[in-house]
Each structure stands twice: as structure tokens, then as C-alpha cells.
């Protein structure tokens, strides 16, 4: 027994890759897991983990520990080796371990795209399961709105994350390239393992509550009267997919701004609620059922010029999940204009006038998605048809609360305070006679 213990402890050289806090948390968890004994049985592990992940993933982990001898017990060093190999090791070592882990249950010892996609789906699903078991405030803020965990969306998300693997002639050789480029899955797998092994990550404070780090954003700002029946097209995997694509500073919270299900089909109302709210995520559903949108990385302001920067991107959520990032070819990221005589009036992202990647017309209810878009890489038409009818639109402010920089001591004019009223006047073709008067006063 002593020889077996020494052999198992030699599987990792030491705990040098672990911080003092990580080491303390792992020791405490193992002690609880094996009921103060020196070793952990398969039954102990299953009892502790069976409610925290998908059955297929639990079987995979159990086989790693116990396949050679189901009756044996494992010691501390072996127990933490799974965490170290998948969460702490360098990228190339993680890939080697993942390959060996997945091949151990393959009938012919070969690794396929299907094997990896199923593993990715189980990691995503298990991440949601473990946060649900924890009653994590971030995920809970979405679940209480009735946001559903859709199995079909879990499949779409896994397929999206694995799409580049399908282009590889040799999957086993290509998995290293795929893993190195798929930062979304790297974040998901690492965060899941930290939660599974009860190791706290950097957290955030919300009011009087503190929340452990999570890849879901905190949902804020939904009117209380709409919380029980919130008209969103987003599913839980949709929120996770889009949020993990955002810049890290924008991932902590989403603030509700606008929904046609609450505010009605009014471009003026939407404009009044999204201008000067900072970076936003826009989601659109067309009458054919396609769901798509974009991340606007800069504050929306009304004007005849394009705005934004290369952090912006477009995405599809149904019938497939895809992201289209900046090509750097042009800077046509955001456009918002009303009451222009020679330029289009509405909201656009990407492309060029009359050929936007996404376009919502100021005459609310219709829009278009161009068949090509040079602003975003590998773009494909997002709507079911080039010209579409709007079924639903919602807009979320993301990241820290946006603070508009006003000149200290100045009192904003009524035009600046009521953007919706201003937009309605402009859309109605009314002339704003006071426009520019503030500038003239400054010059005087």
C-alpha cells in the first residue's frame, strides 16, 4: 500500500504551480471528501460531485482516477492532479492531457470532432449546473427572469466553439491550434474547475453581497413589474456566449435599456434609452426566427458619422452561434442618425450606407443585413432574408455605469435631458430652432 501511495504521489512533482490559498483550499476539500481519512474512494468522489456536473463528464473524471482499478482509493496528489493538468498547466500540456482523457473512453482509441464537441458541451452544461447548485447571484439574476437553459442552445454553443476543428484534416494534431485560439472554452473550462474544486476566484461586490468570479454578468435594471414575465429572446447559453466575447471590463454586469416587448416598437423610444448609456449589446429577432446582434464598444450618439472601434463585433445566436470580429479594413462600426436629408436614418453596424451588416430603419419595424460586410471577418448574412421585418429588439448596456462628461456647473438644456422627445420631433420633421444656440452662447 505504501508503494502505491508513493507511486501516485509521483504523478505530479510538487505543488509549486499552486498558490498558498489554492493549496489550502484543495487540502481542506480533500479532507472533507474522504471523511478525514488519507484516501478517497470512487463512492466518496461520486457522492461529492454527482450533482455538480453532467453524467458523461463525471464518468470521464472517474475513469481517469479509477479505470485501472475501481476498488482502489486515491490520495491527495492524485486527486489534485486533474485540477493542475486542466487548469494550471501550460496550454500545450493541457492539450496533451485532454487528448489522453478523451481517448481513454474511445472505442477505437481515435479522437474525433464529435468526441471533443460532446466534451465541450458537457463542460458548458456542467458550468451552468454547478453555478445553479451554488445559487450564484450572477446566474440567479437571469434565472429569476425566466431565462431558460436550452439544451439545443448548449449544442449550438458547443458546435460554435468547435467550428475550427472541423477544418482540421488531422483532429489530434489540430486540437492544439484550436485550443490555443478558442479563449472562450479556455475560460469556461478553467472557471468550471475552480468552482468544482471549491477554489475562490477574484470576486465582485454588488450592494451588500459579494459574488465569486463568474463568466455570467449580473442582470440589472429590469423593471420590477416585468421581472416575472420578462420578454427576452435570450437563453442562458446565449448570455454566456456573448458575455465571454466581451472585453473583460465589460463582463461583470448587463444593464437593461430597451425592449420592444416593454417599450413598444418605437425608434424614438429606443434612441432615447440607448444614447449616452455607454457600450451596448443589441439583440434582434426577425419574423423568420433568426436571432442576431452586435456589440457596440462605444457610447451611442446621434450624428451623420460612423463611430466605434475594433472591439466591436457582430454575432448570430440562431439558427447557429457565430461571432464576426473586426477586420480592420474600415472603421464603420456604429452609425446612428435621424432627420438627415441625404443620408440614411436609423441604426447601423458595419458595412457602408445602404449595405450595413445590421441595419434598423428609423421607420421602426424593418431592417436589412447585407450579404457581405468588409468591416467584420468571415461575415455571413445574419437575417433569414436580406430585408427583414423586426419581431423583437432588446438593448443592454454593458460594463460599468456610463458617466457622461458634462461641463461642471452647467445645467443641461431640455433637449439634452429628453432625448426621446428630441428624436420624436426630428422624426416628425420638426425643426429644432434652438439647436446650436448653446454653442453660440459659448462663443459669445
UniProtKB/TrEMBL annotation:
PROSITE patterns hit by this protein: TLDC
Domain TLDc: 232-399
SMART domains associated with the record: TLDc (SM00584)
Compartments (UniProt record): Cytoplasm; Lysosome; Membrane
A cellular component term, taken from the record's GO annotations: nucleus
InterPro entries per the UniProt record, alphabetical: EF-hand-dom_pair, TLDc_dom
Signal peptide extent: none
Keywords: Cytoplasm, Lysosome, Membrane
GO biological process: response to oxidative stress
Origin superkingdom: Eukaryota
Location, primary (coarse class): cytoplasm
Name assigned to this protein: MTOR-associated protein MEAK7
Organism of this sequence: Cryptotermes secundus
Amino acid at each position: 500500500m505504501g508503494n502505491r501511495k508513493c507511486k501516485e504521489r509521483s504523478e505530479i512533482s510538487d505543488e509549486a504551480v499552486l498558490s498558498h490559498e489554492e493549496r489550502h483550499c484543495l487540502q481542506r476539500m480533500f479532507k472533507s471528501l474522504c471523511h478525514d481519512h488519507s484516501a478517497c474512494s470512487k463512492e466518496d468522489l461520486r457522492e461529492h460531485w454527482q450533482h455538480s456536473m453532467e453524467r458523461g463528464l463525471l464518468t470521464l473524471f472517474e475513469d481517469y482516477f479509477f479505470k485501472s482499478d475501481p476498488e482502489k482509493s486515491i490520495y491527495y496528489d492524485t486527486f489534485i492532479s486533474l485540477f493542475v493538468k486542466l487548469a494550471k498547466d501550460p496550454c500545450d500540456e493541457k492539450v496533451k492531457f485532454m487528448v489522453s482523457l478523451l481517448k481513454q473512453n474511445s472505442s477505437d482509441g481515435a479522437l474525433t470532432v464529435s468526441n471533443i464537441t460532446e466534451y465541450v458541451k458537457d463542460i458548458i452544461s456542467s458550468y451552468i449546473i454547478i453555478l445553479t447548485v451554488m445559487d450564484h447571484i450572477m446566474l440567479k439574476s437571469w434565472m429569476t427572469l425566466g431565462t431558460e437553459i436550452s439544451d439545443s442552445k448548449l449544442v449550438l454553443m458547443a458546435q460554435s466553439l468547435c467550428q475550427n476543428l472541423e477544418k482540421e484534416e488531422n483532429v489530434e494534431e489540430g486540437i492544439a491550434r484550436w485550443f490555443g485560439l478558442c479563449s472562450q472554452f479556455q475560460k469556461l473550462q478553467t472557471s468550471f474547475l475552480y468552482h468544482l474544486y471549491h477554489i475562490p476566484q477574484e470576486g465582485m461586490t454588488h450592494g451588500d453581497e459579494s459574488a465569486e468570479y463568474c463568466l455570467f454578468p449580473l442582470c440589472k435594471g429590469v423593471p420590477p413589474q416585468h421581472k416575472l414575465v420578462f420578454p427576452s429572446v435570450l437563453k442562458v447559453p446565449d448570455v454566456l456566449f456573448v458575455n465571454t466575447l466581451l472585453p473583460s471590463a465589460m463582463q461583470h454586469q448587463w444593464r437593461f435599456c430597451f425592449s420592444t416587448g416593454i417599450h413598444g416598437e418605437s425608434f424614438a423610444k429606443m434612441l432615447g434609452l440607448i444614447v449616452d448609456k455607454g457600450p451596448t449589446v443589441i439583440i434582434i429577432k426577425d419574423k423568420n426566427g433568426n436571432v442576431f446582434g452586435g456589440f457596440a464598444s462605444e457610447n451611442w450618439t446621434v450624428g451623420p458619422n460612423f463611430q466605434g472601434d475594433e472591439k466591436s463585433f457582430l454575432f448570430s445566436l440562431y439558427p447557429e452561434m457565430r461571432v464576426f470580429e473586426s477586420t480592420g479594413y474600415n472603421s464603420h462600426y456604429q452609425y446612428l442618425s435621424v432627420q438627415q436629408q441625404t443620408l440614411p436614418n436609423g441604426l447601423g453596424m458595419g458595412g457602408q450606407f445602404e449595405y450595413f451588416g445590421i441595419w434598423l430603419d428609423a421607420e421602426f419595424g424593418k431592417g436589412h443585413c447585407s450579404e457581405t460586410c468588409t468591416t467584420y471577418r468571415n461575415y455571413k448574412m445574419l437575417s433569414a432574408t436580406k430585408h427583414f421585418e423586426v419581431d423583437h429588439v432588446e438593448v443592454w448596456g454593458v460594463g460599468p455605469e456610463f458617466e457622461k462628461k458634462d461641463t461642471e456647473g452647467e445645467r443641461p438644456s431640455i433637449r439634452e435631458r429628453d432625448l426621446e422627445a428630441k428624436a420624436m420631433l426630428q422624426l416628425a420633421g420638426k425643426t429644432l430652432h434652438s439647436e446650436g444656440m448653446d454653442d453660440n452662447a459659448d462663443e459669445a
